[in-house]
Amino acid sequence: MHDHIIAVDVGTGSARAGVFDLHGHQIARHVTAISLFQSQPLHLEQDSDEIWAAVCTAVRAAMSEAGLSSRDVAAIGFDATCSLVVRDTHGMPLTVSTSGQNKLDTILWMDHRAIRETDECNSTNDPLLQRFGGRLSVEMQIPKLIWLKRHLPETWRQAGMIFDLADYLTWRATGINSRGHSPLAAKWGYGAIAPGARPDAFYRRVGLEDLCEKSALPEQSGLPTLPVGHLTPEAADALGLAADCLVAPGLIDAYAGTVSLFCATDRSTPDSLESQAVLIAGTSSCIVRLLDSPISGEGCWGTFRDVAVPDLWLLEAGQSASGALLDHIVSTHPKGGEPTQARHRTILDHIALQLQQNGADYGLPITVLPDFHGTRSPVSDPRLTGTIAGLSLDRSFDGLCQIYWRSCVALACGVKYIIDRLPSGPARIETLLLAGGLAHHPLLSQLYADATGCTVRKADGCDAVLLGTALHTAVAAGRYPDFWRAGQAMAVRMSEVRPDMARRDALNRDHAILAEMMRHRTALHRLM
After folding, report:
1. The domain containing residue 415 runs over which residues?
2. pLDDT tens for each residue of 248-274
């Protein structure tokens, strides 16, 4: 009894639930889709009630697949994208949409409506900005909150609870307004070390002097190793779990993957941290380092301590769109269709065959600058755009695959470009610990190894992000004394992909192409 953990990962388009035992074995996994609404350009919105319903559906289905009863589960934990959920003083949804639909109470993490507000925050030159590479990102919560107060005053007037999505999920589960250090330090400006202090002076400086009243934010962020509480009877019934099930603090999704890939692998010990980085390659791509001491740099978020693994500092960089770019290419091409996982696999299988038959030049002269949704690193600029050059009138399926492959190459070269510009540390990055949707196909794992020159390692037989949340939850529930001992007990087998030196050398051309396209973009902007 009580020897299993439920982990829930809420991504951009789905909720995923996994059932794990205390040895790290993923027994079952279920995915439930979530809708995405776009009321106008740059505005991306969701319905938090639908998200919660998808979570409950996924958990019940995973439990059924695992053949377990509610008494077998000790605890549940949530990780999520850094979306913003807005509720009134009674916990009812308030619209964040210019369409006025009340059910649309969630601003998606990748929503870019608050560009002007982001610029205003960054013009303050406040010392807080140094923890974010000198600039807040439009993806963070503070600019979106300013936009909400300015453009939807009635929503702001009624607001009484505003959550990061992971904290919303723990609130729905427990009824307790507890806020995790992971989202508050990384997206709300709280102090970098848990428990971090609320940045009231900065909130006042940017016109959010009433934010605490409207959001019910605590004075300090929560401790990552303490549970929030138990499930309410209503949540237990909806999830199909027992009311004595503990609930762990919420995590940022990329940081959950970081937990598993650093802690639950045989080579990821504190002594080897400096030469490793996590690459969570999903809708966006996050490059994460864990460090023994703080460092910071332009185009990086952090460092923050305790947001993934207690007592370690985390530095994050990344690409604003990666999987989202590939989805866009598929959905807009006449031979593309719905960008499902199966469709992506069909395209990648065709590309693999063409590379075998035609060599590394497959897809040329198409070249891609992949910044279709702005950039995070090494420059944080949501206004930057992407380019596809070398197009013809080809409308065939192979024509789609050529554009798709050249976009993959550009994304992989972009990761190398970012890694090379991370702030210096005591050791160069030699190993990439890979997870996310773009880790599923062997062609892309090899591409990331070849493009970066790093050995790529990824978890076999489990969802690494879910495993990280399960490990975090097991510690919060008191089943292990710390993350490293939990990692040893829940260790997952890893597969390894080493760079193909011949292909690595051939990609030097593509690294040069990417740099040249960046220069051309700058030159063109000067003429506009």
Report:
1. 323-419+502-527
2. 999 999 999 999 999 876 544 444 678
